[in-house]
Fold:
Amino acid sequence: SQTIHQWPATLVQPVGSPLSLECTVEGTSNPNLYWYRQAAGRGLQLLFYSVGIGQISSEVPQNLSASRPQDRQFILSSKKLLLSDSGFYLCAWRDRVGDTQYFGPGTRLTVL
Amino acid sequence: GQSLEQPSEVTAVEGAIVQINCTYQTSGFYGLSWYQQHDGGAPTFLSYNGLDGLEETGRFSSFLSRSDSYGYLLLQELQMKDSASYFCAVRDRRGFQKLVFGTGTRLLVSP
Structure:
């Protein structure tokens, strides 16, 4: 069966510090991968998606970036965090023929 | 682009039936999905409608009318554990690889 991992679960970082969040998927090949951000009590904002290794589509301009160095690995990064980057970051995957997106457990980021 | 509208909050009592509506705007509509998210947790898939009509999965049903750009999620025999946020999400043919979510409806079930 397929599983999706995200780490860390929680993170507290100072403004201006770098960020690296990792997401890995097991049990599937060539998935579509997604990064979402959710502010407290709000909806899910699509940040990036990837349909293959090295292929990244950005949905909103921001100081975040994403990379997909391996088929089942998706990384969200920032060189310098802003206060507004605080939120709940969710990674998700979907296979090429299905309609269901499966979410990881999320990383709760607080920027102070 | 796409936009979706849902009520921000709905309240109901145990055993009742509740309907959560979703209206959307998109070009080249492909399908409407529903997800449930408990506080602090990740969204989980509930239902998908690609064609008009009703899809039933246990206590939950989802309806779609493509001509009205409208769908709803129907929850029957409400239980306390159904208290959560519910999101509709749409995929369209131009951005087929993307799933865009609505702002979510918070459902509060009371005894």
